[in-house]
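Hello K.,

You asked for the raw outputs rather than the summary table, so here they are, unedited. I folded two proteins back to back in the same session to keep the settings identical. This is the first:
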Amino acid sequence: MSHSGKKYEKIRALVVPGQVVPIKDAVAKVKSLAFAKFDESVDVDVNVGIDASKGDQVVRGSVVLPHSRGRVARVLVFAKGDHAEQARAAGADFVGSDDLIEKIATGWMEFDFAVATPDMMGPVGKLAKQLGPRGLLPNKKLGTVTFDVDAVVRDLKLGRVFFKNDKNGIVHFAFGKVSFTPQAMLENLVAFAKALSAVKPASSKGKFLKKMTITSTMGVGITVSPDEVLRS
């Protein structure tokens, strides 16, 4: 994201690029330097020790954050019959089958997660071009293709969030809002870091969490020590 303006230049002058800041000071600084009129997200970028071009080194996982991310997720479920009723009872925001597929095909995307029962994945697969690039296509490896829709919907509503590396071997993750207390931000970040560390591919050698930077939506990146975060 490009930045400009006196406010951004002012906060940039308060951060030394690349300097590793103690984690408690870093989360407090992210909060204190936020200047936007909206409640900015707080994000972390982690350079992981993988070769992103190799299929056996894909980093993929999920975590239930102790303080969620500031809002309740909107969950959509592709299901029929009893499974559709279970999804509604569990709190799913949108439940359906062909009707939802048709609606999404026309451009509607007002949801954060999509879940599907295995018998629905044939028709849902037709939406791969719409859902895939947004990370919304139900995936068996992530647990979002299942007949146990009750459990997965409740989990998503409690705050389970998924993560995956990009083509450059970086994992981007939003772990809170600037309105959170520094302690809540820290606890969410630690939970994420531990979940990320736990899914290190077996073929990845050497240090896995190589570099970690946190920032608010409009803010400046602050470098922290992955090892310190894991010890916190």
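The second followed immediately with the same parameters:
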Amino acid sequence: MERVAGPHFSIVLPAYNESENIAGVLKNLKLALNQASIFSEIIVVDNGSTDDTPKILNDLKREIGELRVLRIEKNIGCGNGIIKGLDIACGDILCFMDADGQVRSGDLISVYHQLKDNSLDLCKGTRIKRFFNVQREVVSKIYNFLFRILFDSRFQDINGSPKIFTRRFYQEAHLTSKDWFLDAEIMIKAKRGKYAIGDFPIVYLERQGGNSKVSVMTMLEFLKNMFYWKFLLWKK
């Protein structure tokens, strides 16, 4: 089926119980995109929220014409929500990032221009300053170190966002991870497919409201998936 013409840039924001952040994130994002004159759509995937996120999004649709909302009744993983959002996106350039306000809208625009100006297939943010607690910072460094060793990667921040890529890359990558490993799967497949990859330094802000969805179990899930992809799926 021929794809209907639509916005040049599609941004997918997975949101699970982000009632304290979502309105500010969307308004800042709309302002930044308008100032940069980027024709875009914003797709918020309400990933089974049980707070006021659905009501807030419904109200915001009257204020933000670029906003589309996809409701998933049962949250089976962040990756699943992102893929569902990307599947309905109309843009030639696609993106996803968290809806918690930790990525500055200006940094999103910078990563977008980095991809465009250098004709990249994929470009992502690399967090040069992060407001993590000490435990999470240590775990993150260990995880990224292991990933670089296992997959011979030069990138310092595998889970860094936003991640922006061409529609061609997305269609050819056939992403499958329904959990937090989606970021890593993208980097693995981009390297394996010899796509042009870039990154851009960003500041990762402190969360202003709500709770982080990353836990110790998330980290264990990362490790399990890394070894699974390395030793069972890497050469398929």
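The mean pLDDT is 89.

Happy to rerun anything if the numbers look odd on your end.

Regards,
P.
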